[in-house]
């Protein structure tokens, strides 16, 4: 019932993630429409959105859905709203999110983010994953493990990103809560008024409709018995 008519390939899904088929504007309105029609209270929906937005500022890429659902459950927010809120992080926003989180984290830790370092942001990711793979192979080879690249990645990228992302994400998440809550309340109120007016119109129409006449019986009424004539 809910399956797609046309099954998408992995390449198609990757392409839609970078740029949706209908464009980012249509994707934004689709997510907004789904959020407004969630069957829950505005407060729970807004808390779910805040949880999803906060999660996008964490460095746990690939686990945002799981983390958003756990945070939403903790703060008693709507889990579906939290999952939809993670779309705040997308290819258009990942770069500014990462820059804000890293700069804030380095500032709070007292380690200014050095410009023009020997390895770029992406290069340190590559070094970290390379260390993980190489050290996994050492389980089957007679050579020691080397965590140098992963240690640099943790000290200069992951930990500052985690600290800065938590601070910036909390600020943006709280802002999203207070921005979306009145909007969701207003939408729910308008929708409830539309439904109430529709039922009132149906009720008035039913009250003013002419009543159908009672059906006339086809059988003739019973004739009174004949009285005998006098003198008989």
Please provide the count of β strands: 0
Helix and strand run: HHHHHHHH
Main β-sheet: number of strands, strand sense, barrel status? none
Helix percentage range: 55-70%
Tally of domains: 1
- Overall average pLDDT: 76
Question: What's the structural blueprint in terms of helices and strands?
Answer:
Elements: H1 10-18, H2 23-36, H3 42-55, H4 64-74, H5 79-85, H6 94-108, H7 121-137, H8 148-208
Helix pairs in contact: 3-4, 3-5, 3-8, 4-5, 6-8, 7-8
Organism: Pontibaca methylaminivorans
Region (Disordered): 203-232
Transmembrane segments: 45-72, 79-102, 158-181
Question: If you had to describe this structure to a student in words, what would you say it looks like?
Answer:
By secondary structure, the chain is mainly alpha-helical. The chain has one domain. 64% of the residues lie in helices and 0% in strands. It contains 8 helices and no strands. Helix 6 crosses helix 8. The N and C termini lie far apart (87 Å). 22% of the residues are buried. The model has no long low-confidence stretch (mean pLDDT 76).
Summarize the structure.
With 232 residues, this protein is an all-alpha fold. The protein has helices at residues 10-18, 23-36, 42-55, 64-74, 79-85, 94-108, 121-137, 148-208. Residues 26-191 form the DUF2062 domain.
């Amino acid at each position: 019932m809910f399956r797609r008519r046309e099954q998408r390939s992995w390449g198609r899904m990757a392409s839609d993630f970078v740029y949706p088929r209908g464009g980012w504007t249509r994707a934004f309105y689709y997510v907004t429409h789904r959020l407004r029609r969630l069957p829950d209270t505005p407060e729970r929906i807004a808390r779910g959105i805040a949880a999803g937005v906060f999660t996008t500022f964490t460095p746990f890429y690939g686990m945002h859905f799981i983390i958003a659902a756990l945070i939403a459950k903790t703060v008693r927010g709507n889990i579906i709203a939290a999952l939809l809120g993670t779309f705040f992080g997308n290819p258009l926003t990942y770069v500014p999110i990462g820059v804000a989180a890293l700069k804030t984290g380095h500032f709070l830790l007292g380690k200014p983010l050095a410009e023009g370092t020997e390895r770029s942001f992406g290069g340190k990711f590559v070094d970290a994953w390379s260390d993980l793979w190489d050290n996994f192979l050492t389980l089957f080879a007679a050579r020691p493990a080397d965590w140098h690249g992963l240690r640099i990645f943790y000290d200069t990228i992951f930990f500052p990103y985690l600290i800065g992302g938590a601070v910036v994400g909390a600020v943006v998440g709280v802002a999203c809560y207070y921005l979306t809550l009145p909007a969701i309340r207003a939408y729910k109120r308008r929708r409830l008024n539309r439904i109430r007016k529709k039922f009132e119109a149906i009720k008035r129409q039913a009250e003013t409709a002419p009543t159908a006449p009672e059906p006339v019986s086809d059988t003739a009424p019973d004739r009174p018995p004949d009285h005998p004539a006098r003198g008989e």
